[in-house]
Amino acid sequence: MKPSVTISPLLTKVLDSARWAPSGDNVQCWRFEITGEHTFVIHGKDTSDHVVYDLEGHASWLAVGCLLEAIDLSAAHEGYEAVFQHIDCELPQEIRIGVELSERPGIAQDPLYSQIIRRCVQRKPMGTTPLSSAEKKAFEQSLPNGFEVIWLEGDRVKQQVAKFMYGNADTRYSMKEGYEVHSKIIDWRPECRRYSPDLIPPLALGLDAINIALTKWSLKSWSRFHFLEKYLAGTVLPRLLMDYRTSIKCSAHFVIVGDKTAKSQWDYHNAGRAVYRFWLTAAQLNLGFQPEQTPVIFSEYIRNGVEFSENPYTNQNADKMDQVFKQLIGEDKVQRSVYMGRVGRSELPTSRSVRKPLTELLL
Fold first, then answer.
1. Residues of the chain with CATH 3.40.109.10
2. What is the rounded CA–CA span in Å between residue 356 and residue 1?
3. Which among 107, 125, 228, 258 has most CB atoms closer than 10 A?
4. CATH topology of domain 134-183+220-344
5. What are the phi and psi torsion angles at 312 (to 5°)?
6. Is residue 175 classed as helix, strand or coil in its secondary structure?
7. Distance between CA atoms of 304 and 316, rounded to whole angstroms?
8. What is the pLDDT of residues 33-88, one digit of tens each?
9. CA gap 148, 28 in Å, rounded
10. What is the third-level CATH fold of 9-117+354-361?
């Protein structure tokens, strides 16, 4: 933060809450420029230049949508309405949104506001008790108009999803482009083993101490990781623990779909707002939540002709998994899908990503 920056008490409260919005690998792809007592500009930048899971910028656009919803909820809690205005940018990676807070006495208070800080990721196995009708209804009602949820539940279907997620993980682990992301997102600093302000803490991975140590060792270099993966089946155990097992150990998987295929930046912002409300609802219901987003991302790459890996095997496997995805929910729904994940019975995780302090997010 620049020494000359001053911020009103209102904006301090709103932004200190909204900064807890989720972003891919906790990158927090936004900064805030204070322009007045009730106004500020969101300066975002997508990670398309270095993250294989964001080559079109859509993952970052989705995250900014989560941020917009968090701002809306936080402003309403203070008795204000947030108005957003797109600002044209010179560079394609940049995102600019002007925000003005207008006082609205009596504005409705959304109970989801209380879950903003509690909401987090649960990567460990969860309880498998099926969702009740009331819980499903709460999830479904949390979504704004234009979005619906597809449930993938029951032992037989979860077995199908588990095989799908296990196969999909092979796409992630077989490509160097994925390694370049995975090797940088875990916070190995001793003081950040349980909580990390800008990465993922090791204890949040859902692995035991031995597998955490093996993960750290294998991610030291691509040659080491690739040798293990190709010749020693080094990714079989992580895929079994972090993809197959967790797919079985949950109440249900879900896919959020829009009424049309997302195309524009604001389409993705609106999708992000829907996803965030769904995630906050999971926290409100005391359910664990884990994103399973890469099938949606890879399917979109294939549909849009995006070349995301130099490894022929990776591309072949992604094509195969895309067909499985279409068999699970239907080709039309795959094209309209914006988010996939799992929910289940769970205590709050004892390790999680936290956030940078607000002072570090101010321009």
1. 9-117+354-361
2. 12
3. 258
4. NADH Oxidase (3.40.109)
5. -60, -40
6. coil
7. 16
8. 999 999 999 999 999 999 999 999 999 999 999 999 999 999 999 999 999 999 99
9. 27
10. NADH Oxidase (3.40.109)
Q: How far apart are CA 34 and CA 358, in angstroms?
A: 12
Instruction: List the one residue out of 4, 3, 21, 120 whose CA is nearest residue 356.
Output: 21
Q: CA 220, CA 293: separation in Å to the nearest integer? A: 25
Q: What Cα–Cα distance (Å) separates residue 302 from each residue in 42, 147, 336?
A: 31, 23, 14
| 105 touches 312 (CB < 8 A) | no
The letter for the amino acid at 263 is: K
- 3 state SS of 80: strand
> Which structure tokens are listed for 267?
């389409």
Q: Are 146 and 259 in contact (CB under 8 A)?
A: yes
Q: Please tell me the distance from the alpha carbon of residue 60 to that of residue 97, in angstroms, as a whole number.
A: 14
Q: What DSSP character marks residue 19? A: T
- The token duo for 108 is 């409705």
Three-class HEC string of 237-261: HHHHHHHHHHHHCCCEEEEEEECCC
pLDDT tens digits for 84-116?
Answer: 999 999 999 999 999 999 999 999 999 999 999
Vertex 326: Cα angle to 324 and 330 (nearest 5): 145
DSSP string, 204-227: GSS--HHHHHHHHHHTT-HHHHHH
Reduced to 3 states, what is the DSSP secondary structure of residue 27?
Answer: coil
Closest C-alpha to 120, from 358, 357, 356, 347:
347
Residues in the chain: 363
**Paired strand residues for 45:** 94
Reported as a single tens digit per residue, the pLDDT across 153-211 is 999 999 999 999 999 999 999 999 999 999 999 999 999 999 999 999 999 999 999 98
